[in-house]
Amino acid sequence: MSLPEDEQRQLQKIEQALYKDDPKFVRLMRATDPRVQYERKLKHALLGVVIGAGLLAAGAVTHRVWLGAAGVVIMLLSLVGAVVSWRRYAAWVQRPRSGAGTETATGAKRRPGQTRRARMMERVEERWRRRQEGNGGMPRRTRN
Length: 144
Prior knowledge:
Layout: H1 5-21, H2 23-31, H3 34-62, H4 65-94, E1 102-103, E2 109-110, H5 116-134
Antiparallel strand pairs: 1-2
Helix pairs in contact: 1-2, 3-4
């Protein structure tokens, strides 16, 4: 949910005043912001792609196979790093902001920061509890 324009202006004024009063604190807080870290990693990865492409071109021009191979390896590793950073950034932006957790498809509460294994164990425990209460709505197999 976005803020109204007047509140955005007030927030910008507060940020500017804080930056003027204590720029060291602002840099420290900005450095711990995950968005800044992911953007920095993405920029470094894209720089790696450019350097790798340059090495690949240099290897092709000078007929040095090892130089071209090094360029390809650097480009591939940089592209992987860029994709990972981009996906983490997108996941961070889309995560729920409330501390209460969100509903999963099975109806169980999902707490932020909960691992995949813990969520799976919760689903297994929920199914077990439903079975103990009375079959949990699952049809029984019958022998014909």
